[in-house]
Amino acid sequence: MDGGKLGSKGELSSKNIFIGAALAIIGNLLISISMNIQKYSHLRQAEEKNETHYLKSKIWWVGLTLMVLGEIGNFSAYGFSPASLVAPLGTTTVIANAIIAVVFLRERVRYQDVFGVTLAIVGAFLLITFSTKEFSELTGKELAIYFRAWPFLVYLGLEVVLFCSLLFAQWRYDLENVVIFLLLVALLGSLTVISAKAVSSMINITLGGNSQLGHPLFYVMLIVMITTAIAQVKFLNRAMQSFDATVVVPTNFVLFTISAIISGIVLYKEFYGLTFLEIFMFLFGCVLSFIGVYYITSDRKQEETDEQLLLTNSDLFPGFLSLSTSKLIAVQPSNMLTATRVDYPMLPSKPTYESTGESHTQQVEIQDET
């Protein structure tokens, strides 16, 4: 009898993990599609010289709705699957954008894109196959015990010290280094993942009939999740403003995924019970995903127009909450009253020869008048 119960519990846990993986993949697909729909809405308004506010566009709202549904799916995945599995599956966004760029935007198919997509798909397969199959949702009381464990307290202390040191060094010496910015994002991202998994688990348990909404930890984790997600946007935007997307995207994905995996191992013990071969194959799947993202995003030349640049590089970010929030910011026009001119604050503005010439002419005219 006991063996039967244990077996059914293991099967249920394995089934839930596959549900979580499916939610993560579908969620990232919806987010990718949503961003491209919103971009299409802005470009259509720009081509038609329509000065109507983009919030009145039905197409834009369809895109936003899909993004919300995608984020809900991505968030819910943490309640079913280990964080170490959900985070690497963010490659779905990169794969989807590569396919959309070729099929719908008629971009040229590059051999490295095909190679990168193939590696990312194989990596995702290995991640799902060799991920831990023993996973249980945690109540508020169980989470409190996990948070008081000394390995997590040491890990959290090291994260806080490293974050404060990097932040001080960046502020004191005015460092413009992509690794520093993205390490700050990754450190915040690990807390976002930890809190998102805790909130999602407690919501799932609540929906199952055992309410966790009265536990203070639920609201603490909710605040931590929102705060760290918003903070990530700031540093991610700084990185995108100072460095090319082809550098930021793969670096951010690698650092964010590593931080999520480490936090899952330390706090939720997600590698416990796995054999050496399973751990090796899981990590090998992560490496394949990293390489795949690198090949897909590398050597993408920035086009001359904002519209073309927007269609290729602005929403390649995989990840959770803050990354999609950054993409939402990037895809909206900076001029809130009209969509006829589309500016993207996430992308570095480069002066054109035409604008430089005009400014020089104006200065000469002023000097002549004086």
Automatic annotation (TrEMBL):
GO terms for cellular component: membrane. InterPro entries: EmrE-like, Mg_trans_NIPA. It is found in: Membrane. Pfam families: Mg_trans_NIPA. This is NIPA-like protein 2. It is a multi-pass membrane protein. Keywords: Membrane, Transmembrane, Transmembrane helix. Belongs to the NIPA family. Its main location: membrane.
